[in-house]
Amino acid sequence: MRQRPALLIGLPLALLPLFGCTQFPALDATITPALEQADYPALVPLEPLLAEAQAPGIDEAQTRAGMENDIAALRARSAALRGPLLSPAERARLTAGRR
């Protein structure tokens, strides 16, 4: 009974080195000759990129106004859909057609 826990721990530890033996894909063949001859990318200063990334991109007032316009348009559309689907003349014409 005492050997089961040791076996459960010892067996995975004994098999662990086998997981390190794997075939790596041939990555050297993925680089084209044109890419090998290409120049390195130009280095640019980091400060302008950081300043651009940290600049506020969302104007709260403009976003709020746009959302309020959208809400008003949706409410108007919803109110129009709540009305009767058929006018009284259309309803009378359909009712007359059933007879």
Automatic annotation (TrEMBL):
Secretion signal span: 1-26
Keywords in alphabetical order: Signal
Domain of life: Bacteria
Protein name as it appears in the record: DUF3035 domain-containing protein
Organism: Sulfitobacter aestuarii
Lineage of the organism: Bacteria, Pseudomonadati, Pseudomonadota, Alphaproteobacteria, Rhodobacterales
